[in-house]
């Protein structure tokens, strides 16, 4: 058993005890984040590091270890509130923090028996980082909590990063970073590609290369901790007194404004929901949802479809010659109106060179039909930049499930090889009139813009299950696909209902 697996099992085993008190997986992981941060900040003050603590005296790890019973629970609650008012990394991790562990005895055991007995700072970054990542994945598997929306399958992330190929000195951003999977994979790729970095290169990679934005406070803190455990971002003492712009991740609505910074690489899987909305309280005290439409001068079209907005936002974030890989649902490829406007503009102003059609059954959010769109931003030009769009179909005749047949990195080997990042101009199709089963082919710009609504919903392979009854998938696979389709349809209906005006009572 690996060290990271041992730690995950040790920490996760206690979650079942706290579940009896009504604590969710997400609540437990959040409490672990608070306590791990305090423990590691304290370890940095001890030999051989002997660094000053960024945590105010009386609100640090020793102040917790020295208490028990009701005094511990009371102090822990006050500690969270106080640290949430601080600036820098402290404020980022503890903002709006609350104690969810109401039993002081169980809180004491978590502090003294599970966390205090480990020396976290002395653990290799890969060990403690992989341990925390393992906890995040276990949390994502709790589909009822909705945490899966923040977790993109690691094999897909790895393949996307290998295709985009961040370079030393590049800046990388994920404007919908969740718990930081894309950011960490980009960092890992750079570290392994350049094992002999000098001091300045290491500093840039740790402090300046990685940036993320997340709209939910509780998820931002998970991301910040995840990055910190993998050695990304400032240490707690370095962040003390620094402006929040110094931090690798921040809480914000990324679509609200563009900001001044531009980036070499954008890697992202924006939220699956189609509409951007907020909950408001009416004069009568009822709650209602208001749809958000972002009015930005850099956008080609104003729309309430946040997935189309994210595509536009990603283009604006890129430097000239910057590269992007974005997970998008099928509706972004074929929706009319604003969707058509965005696609035509994207094809003109960027080199939209690759589309990966993803299989169903690979995301924790069920019923998702998604794709990865790869494009490069270009300078102004009178002719369209997109000349040829290459499409790889990993969906037709492919059957994946999270438990029995999860997506593996090897399932994407063929795509990554055909993508040919080193020499995209030398790509060779595997499809032709004589090889109709080939999953890799190209479409010219003229072919695409001539399609109805400039649709990018491109497919050509025959579904074997529709052609031959003997090749039908197993009944459980068919049933799961039907269930996923029904869930996706129900989610769309609920979004429509949420946008409709509330009915009023008819007065007699």
How large is the count of helical segments?
A: 19
List low-pLDDT spans. Answer: 277-289, 504-508
What about the largest sheet? 9 strands, mixed
Number of strand elements: 11
SSE arrangement, N to C: HHHHHHHHEHHEHHEEEEHEHHEEEHEHHH
CATH fold type of the domain at 3-131? Ferritin
CATH architecture annotation of the domain at 3-131? Up-down Bundle
Biggest sheet: strand arrangement: 3-2-1-4-7-9-8-10-11
Mean pLDDT: 86
Instruction: Report the radius of gyration as a whole number of Å.
Output: 24 Å
Distance between the termini: 71 Å
Shape: globular
The CATH superfamily of the domain at 3-131 bears the name N6 adenine-specific DNA methyltransferase, N-terminal domain
| Share in β-strands | 5-15%
């Amino acid at each position: 058993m690996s060290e990271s697996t041992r730690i995950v099992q040790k920490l996760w085993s206690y979650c079942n005890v706290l579940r009896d008190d009504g604590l969710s997986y997400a609540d437990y992981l959040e409490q672990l984040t608070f306590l791990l941060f305090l423990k590691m900040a304290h370890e940095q003050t001890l030999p051989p590091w002997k660094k000053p603590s960024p945590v105010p005296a009386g609100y640090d790890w020793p102040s917790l270890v020295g208490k028990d019973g009701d005094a511990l629970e009371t102090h822990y609650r006050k500690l969270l509130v106080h640290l949430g008012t601080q600036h820098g990394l402290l404020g980022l991790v503890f903002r709006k923090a609350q104690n969810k562990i109401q039993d002081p005895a169980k809180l004491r055991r978590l502090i003294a028996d599970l966390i205090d007995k480990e020396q976290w700072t002395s653990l290799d970054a890969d060990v403690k980082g992989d341990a925390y990542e393992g906890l995040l994945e276990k949390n994502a598997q709790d589909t009822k909590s909705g945490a899966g929306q923040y977790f993109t399958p690691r094999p897909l992330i790895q393949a996307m990063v290998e295709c985009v190929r961040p370079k030393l000195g590049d800046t990388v951003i994920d404007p919908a970073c969740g718990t930081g999977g894309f950011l960490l994979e980009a960092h890992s790729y750079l570290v392994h590609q350049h094992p002999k970095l000098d001091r300045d290169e290491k500093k840039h990679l740790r402090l300046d290369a990685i940036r993320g934005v997340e709209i939910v406070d509780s998820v931002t803190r998970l991301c910040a901790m995840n990055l910190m455990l993998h050695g990304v971002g400032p240490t707690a003492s370095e962040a003390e007194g620094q402006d929040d712009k110094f931090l690798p991740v921040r809480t914000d609505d990324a679509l609200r404004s563009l900001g001044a910074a531009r980036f070499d690489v954008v890697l992202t899987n924006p939220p699956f929901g189609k509409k951007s909305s907020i909950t408001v309280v009416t004069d009568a005290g009822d709650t209602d949802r208001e749809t958000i439409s972002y009015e930005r001068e850099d956008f080609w079209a104003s729309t309430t479809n946040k997935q189309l907005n994210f595509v536009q936002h990603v283009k604006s974030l890129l430097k000239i010659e910057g590269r992007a890989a974005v997970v998008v649902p099928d509706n972004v490829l074929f929706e009319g109106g604003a969707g058509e406007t965005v696609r035509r503009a994207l094809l003109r102003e960027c080199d939209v060179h690759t589309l990966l059609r993803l299989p169903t059954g690979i995301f924790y959010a069920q019923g998702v039909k998604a794709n990865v769109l790869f494009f490069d931003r270009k300078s102004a030009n009178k002719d369209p930049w997109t000349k040829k769009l290459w499409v790889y179909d990993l969906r037709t005749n492919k059957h994946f499930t999270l438990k029995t047949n999860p997506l593996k990195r090897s399932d994407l080997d063929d795509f990554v090889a055909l993508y040919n990042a080193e020499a995209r101009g030398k790509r060779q199709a595997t499809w032709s009139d004589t090889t109709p089963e080939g999953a890799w082919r190209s479409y010219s710009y003229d072919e695409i813009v001539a399609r109805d609504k400039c649709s990018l919903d491109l497919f050509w392979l025959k579904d074997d299950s529709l052609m031959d009854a003997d090749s039908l998938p197993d009944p459980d696979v068919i049933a799961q696909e039907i269930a996923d389709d029904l869930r996706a349809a129900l989610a769309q209906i609920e979004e429509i209902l949420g946008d409709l005006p509330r009915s009023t009572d008819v007065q007699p």
